[in-house]
Write a structure and sequence with these properties.
- The protein is of the alpha+beta class.
- It has a single domain, classed as Gcn5-related N-acetyltransferase (GNAT) (Aminopeptidase, 3-Layer(aba) Sandwich).
- The protein has 4 helices and 7 strands; from the N terminus they run E-H-H-E-E-E-H-E-H-E-E.
Length: 145
Amino acid sequence: MRVSVRPLRHSDLVHVLAIEQRSFPVPWSLGMFVLELGKPSSICSAATVADRLVGYLIAAEYGDAWHLMNISVDDRWRRQGIADALLTDLFARQNAVDVAYTLEVRRSNSAAIRLYQRHGFAAVGVRKHYYQDNGEDGVIMWRTV
């Protein structure tokens, strides 16, 4: 299986929204994705297999760090290297020294935490009751190059 990563397009959003709604208890709206696609300070990527969109990543630059805001893989394609390919592509775009990345992840999402750790992220704190749907804590993770 060959995973390709390319820029996310407005025409992809119907597929992105379907994945988003199956992946998260409080999914992003269409407007949120459109807003990020329009920002010059955002990186919006699509992962495809045989021209089929199977995952996406949204990261935005805030000051001196990139915030990984949203990453998801179609539930039928998980654990096949799609998220790895999206993260690897994100990091390859930044060949500067002292590039920092941050994210929040649900404390209960051990698979995602392991994925981020494999890519050099480390837990540095907790945002108590971060997730509005159930009050779950968010683990704050950072990666510095």
